[in-house]
């Protein structure tokens, strides 16, 4: 089995590490249900992550008080669903992530440039 096919079957550690800032960015835009977050992550290209990984990250971020969740009881059909929203601490965490992502983007750019020379 070649490296390419192996990577398609399972997410890389780099993909997993980008999950947290991706969730923060999505929740900064607006509060969302877990199911909506899964579909929004997929549209960003993070569809290789198992839903359990995403929900675990949300729980951990809730423990850190970056995210708050509550039940959406406004729905006319189906059971109430949990809605996640960003807190003030979450916005601060996102600012820290933005700086980190900027540094990583520069580093990745240098690595790619070196690998192609």
Brief write-up:
By secondary structure, the protein is mainly α. It has helices at residues 3-9, 13-17, 19-29, 34-44, 51-63, 88-116; strands at residues 32-33, 67-72, 81-86.
Q: Which class in CATH terms? A: Mainly Alpha
How would you sum up the major sheet?
Answer: 3 strands, antiparallel
The CATH topology annotation reads as Arc Repressor Mutant, subunit A
Quaternary structure type: single chain
Beta-strand percent range: 5-15%
**Averaged pLDDT:** 89
Distance from first to last alpha carbon: 28 Å
The neighbouring-strand order within the major sheet is 1-3-2
CATH homologous superfamily, by name?
Answer: Winged helix-like DNA-binding domain superfamily/Winged helix DNA-binding domain
Shape: elongated
Number of helices: 6
Radius of gyration: 17 Å
Low-pLDDT parts are 1-8
Per CATH, the architecture is Orthogonal Bundle
Report the count of strand segments: 3
What class do helices, strands and sheet pairing give? mainly alpha
How many structural domains in the coordinates?
Answer: 1
Percent range of helical residues: 55-70%
What is the H/E order? Answer: HHHEHHEEH
Model description:
Strand 2 and strand 3 form a beta hairpin. The longest helix has 29 residues, at 88-116. With 117 residues, this protein is mostly helical. The chain is 65% helix and 12% strand. It has a 3-stranded antiparallel beta sheet with strand order 1-3-2.
What descriptors fit this protein?
Arc Repressor Mutant, subunit A; 6 helices; mainly alpha; 117 residues; disordered N terminus; 3-stranded antiparallel beta sheet; 3 strands; single chain
């Amino acid at each position: 089995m070649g490296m390419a096919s192996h990577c398609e079957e399972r997410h890389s550690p780099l993909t997993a590490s980008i999950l947290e800032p991706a969730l923060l960015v999505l929740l900064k835009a607006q509060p969302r249900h877990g199911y909506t977050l899964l579909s929004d992550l997929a549209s960003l290209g993070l569809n290789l992550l198992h839903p359990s990984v995403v929900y675990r990250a949300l729980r951990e971020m809730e423990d850190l008080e970056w995210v708050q969740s509550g039940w959406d009881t406004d729905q006319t059909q189906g059971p109430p669903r949990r809605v996640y929203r960003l807190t003030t601490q979450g916005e601060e965490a996102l600012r820290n992530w933005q700086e980190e992502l900027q540094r990583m983007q520069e580093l990745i750019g240098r690595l790619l440039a070196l690998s192609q020379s």
